Amino acid sequence: MQTTKRPPASVVFIFGGSGDLNYRKLTPALYNLFLDNWMPEKFAIAGIGRSAYSNEKYHEHLLDGVTKFSRRKGKLNGHWTEFSEHVSYLQMDGDDAAAYHLITDLVKQKEEEWGTHPNVIFYLAVAPQLVPSIAQKLGALKICSEKSTTRIVVEKPFGHDLESAHELNKLLSSMFAEEQIFRIDHYLGKETVQNILALRFANALFEPLWNRNYIDHIQITAAESVGLEGRGGYFENAGALRDMVQNHILQILCMIAMEPPVSFDANEIRNKKVDVLNAIRRITKDQVHDVAVRGQYSGGWKKGEKVVGYRQEEGVNPQSNIDTFAAAKFYIDNWRWQGVPFYVRTGKFLNQKATHITLQFKPAPHYAFPSEAAETWRSNRLTISIQPNMDISIRFQAKRPGQTMTLDPVDMTFDYDAVAGDHAPEAYETLLLDVMEGDATLFMRNDQVDAAWKVIMPILETWESRTPQDFPNYAPDSWGPEGADALLARDGHTWINLPPVVS
Ligand code: BG6
Question: I need a surface site. Which of 3, 126, 131, 495 has the fewest CB within 10 A?
Fold first, then answer.
């Protein structure tokens, strides 16, 4: 969470330099930071990969990604040459310890050229199974013992379950101090997610209402309209619960449910968030059936286009029981939230791309209006839209203009997008800048990762041990399986879907 100054001299190594994450997200983010004057005065970026690229070809490849995926969509590409002078490509096999001297050589060269010891950042944008081996080889380098300047960034998924996350944490912490390890969850870098902290803790208005006395229930939806996008191999070992709930959704839930922090110190914020995870009521395996719903999409039609079912996707087992949809109900056992259900859902190939949080308030305690005044009466509701809409909306009752006393729900909306325009940084811009600054506030600490796994393990284990009888159980373009509606209907609620975005 940057304030005003540019970070110190930095060398950023990107393992997976020829991969998709770098092409779509990391380089566009670094280039935008450069355009916005946030890159250090002295910096070097080295992509690392096994494929062969000359520096020139590498730059061309990256520029293509910037043109297609940067929020600026190719605007300002005139500064690319200036930026690309800082970017090189190191062809090396991350499994080959003997090749790591290429890294130390580059750091040494920059140190001499710049006359200062730079930050050294290792970004592991690689498949999860490659992380331990690369981390071990990096750990053996002398520069990694420089705690205040060398950092390692690890992408999610962080482990495959509680046990493997433990192992990975153990391995990383045998080589790096906790302040050197940046476990990234890109949702935490989204402007609208950070804005939850501003909404809650920079305003006196909401906090008194933000508890069990006024809130009936909370919903978090992270719906995706896309399917696998060629990631069948990865998804077969993950599933929606691991891919989205264990990390992104639980992190959002923490921002909504945490107690006010005393300061914006990284550990203070993370302590408050871990308190939430620790307070989530443990689900027993017998309860899983009542509080969690899984789904898998069938073939069908998606916005007029014929699409195959999950089991027919490339890289997917034709009998796969992996969840492409997950919904769950959680309770937080503390004074603030006792008895308030938090419903969460996520899925691929759903009707819309929409991430939003809804706080549904309790009904007014007494209703003085005649019943005919209030046929359309609804409880108050606060909706925080994370994407693609970026807004905060409060629904309240207003008198319908005219001679009769009739009430209608109306929305008062703050449109974040209208204020930010295309100035709003993308999540990876914010997070990369924070890594260069050494600010870990928006990154997950080892105990947070563990606590999040503990929340979902009973569901994961139960799902893995019981074959679903109804897969595939939802059609593309729908809002998921019927069971997800039943989950809320049992409590007298329904999922809240927002009107589609008109672009
Ligand atoms: C990633 C998941 O972490 O988040 C993907 O692995 C998912 O499966 C993506 O599509 C969603 O991110 P966003 O920013 O598009 O909501």
Answer: 3
